[in-house]
Amino acid sequence: MPPFPSAEIKGIIFDLDGTLYVCDRFATEIQNAAAAYIAGVKGISETEAGLLMAATRQRLSEESGTVQTLSAVCTELGGSIQDLHRFFETSLRPEAYLVRDERVIRLLERLSERFALYIYTNNNRVLTTRIMNYLGLDGLVDGIFTIDDTWRGKPDEGMVNRVLDEIKLSPNQVLFVGDRYDVDLRVPEQLGCPVYLSQNLEQLLRLEELLTPI
Ligand SMILES: [Mg+2]
After folding, report:
1. φ, ψ dihedrals at 177, nearest 5°
2. How far is the C-alpha of 136 from the C-alpha of 130, rounded, in Å?
3. What 3-state class would DSSP assign to 144?
């Protein structure tokens, strides 16, 4: 990956789930909760719903050529993203799975001294706030953009432009960091933003060194 134009970057926009923490068990819990929601919508068992969702995700991915989000799969199967997130708020327990990592806290503390930091996530505001608090990351970011701001899930060009407008930075000044290129990074990159794919703690921690002025 080429070095970033560090001198131009004024802000960093992080995805949350899978980026600022990685937890396969909680990711599975999210998929299971979504299957429970779709099971209710369709009047089928949770196992059947899980299989149906996997098949739908596969089909949509093949048709579109890009990775598909849970939001897209839910909508395709006749569910409502609003209802899905209401269900998530009452059923998901991130506190039972996530582990606070001081290295991530220190990283964001140091980055916050040099950059404006933001979260932009397909998660909802209630769960995002709970997760940020639990991980000790609350208070370290300057703003949070969640799916319930507009109910338009990533990837969405209109939403990226709206975020850039709100934080009053131009594309070349904002680094996007996420764990799924198709979902988190493709649209910002097309708009001229630098991007960084981070799928584990080592890659996340490396960000600081990549942002060090030469
Ligand atoms: Mg993610």
Report:
1. -125, 125
2. 10
3. strand
Q: How far is the CA of 181 from the centre of ligand 1 (A)?
A: 9
Q: What is the pLDDT of residue 7?
A: 84
Distance 125 CA to ligand 1 centre (A): 15
Q: Where are the alpha helices (DSSP H) in the chain?
A: 24-42, 46-64, 70-76, 81-91, 102-112, 125-135, 157-167, 186-190, 201-210
Please tell me the distance from the alpha carbon of residue 5 to that of residue 123, in angstroms, as a whole number: 29
CB 158 within 8 A of CB 149: no
How close is the Cα of 62 to the center of ligand 1, in Å?
A: 20
Ligand 1 centre to CA of 49 (Å) is 22
The model's pTM: 0.94
From ligand 1's centre to the CA of 17, what distance in Å? 4
Q: What is the pLDDT of residues 58-112, one digit of tens each?
A: 999 999 998 899 999 999 999 999 999 999 999 999 999 999 999 999 999 999 9
Contact 127, 88 (CB under 8 A): yes
C-alpha 69 – ligand 1 centre gap (Å): 10
CA 100/CA 108 separation, integer angstroms: 13
How far, in Å, is the centroid of ligand 1 from the Cα of 94? 15
Q: In CATH, what is the architecture of 6-22+101-210?
A: 3-Layer(aba) Sandwich (3.40)
